[in-house]
Amino acid sequence: MRLAATFLCFFVYGFAAAEWAIDVDYSVQNDAGAGQPSYSPLGAILIDRLPDGNFTGRFRATDGITKQLEEKLVEAAKNPQSIYRVRTGNVFSFNEPCLLLRSNLAHLIQVAIDPQKQTIFSISLFPDGLYEAGADYNNCQGVQLAPNARFSANVRIVKSGELPTPDTVSYLQKMERERQARQHGAQQDNRSFIAKYWMYIVPVVAFVVISNAMTPEQGGSE
Q1: What is the CA 59 to chain-centroid distance, rounded?
Q2: pTM of the predicted protein model
Q3: What pLDDT is stored for residue 207 in this prediction?
Q4: Rounded to whole angstroms, how far apart are CA atoms 206 and 218?
């Protein structure tokens, strides 16, 4: 019985553990031009490798983030110049605070990664489930969160990698071999001009001979 309980604990821990974790911070700035933003922990993106070689992600939010984020977004949405940012390392994205309120704090975070080097190329933030915001998308007057609204984040992983560098050395070597082959072929062709182009010369000579042969006959008939 004790052995079964130990195995169960190990299985749950192994299932919850992620291959790669990415810390994500957020900043709600009431005025986008008010200096450097101050960031706070939003949570972490947990990335797992699938059997087919692709990757999937899930978000583990910081405790108490719903209340913190709601208060800051509501206050920032009063100013159309406010901005909501998320970042991981030196890579960041931003969106309108009002859009996140309209989506009831539902986030969609897309991350482009290089899995071999565990490097982040880009992070993009969208209000999840919000398909139409209208022309006044940054106007939050009268917008209220649903009573059961809670912070949530869906994660979309895009696997990217470095493009292969061109094989310049092999290309130059191929060009050199073709050049040498052309030169070698030209040196071997030592035939005379007539030997090379007799098929063009013979018709011309035949035409001239026939023309000269017909000219006296025409003069005698006259």
Answers
A1: 21
A2: 0.62
A3: 73
A4: 19
Alpha-carbon span 99 to 101, nearest angstrom: 5
CA distance 49 to 57: 9
Question: At which residue do the structure tokens 């553990």 appear?
Answer: 17
Instruction: Give average pLDDT by consecutive 10-residue segment, the chain, 222 residues.
Output: 38 51 92 81 93 89 94 87 91 90 92 87 89 66 79 90 57 70 62 68 74 60 48
| 49 touches 85 (CB < 8 A) | no
Beta-bridged to residue 185, according to DSSP, are none
Q: What is the pLDDT of residue 82?
A: 87
Is residue 127 within 8 A of residue 108, CB to CB? The reply is: yes
Give me the sheet containing 55-61, strands edge to edge.
55-61, 40-49, 20-29, 83-88, 91-95
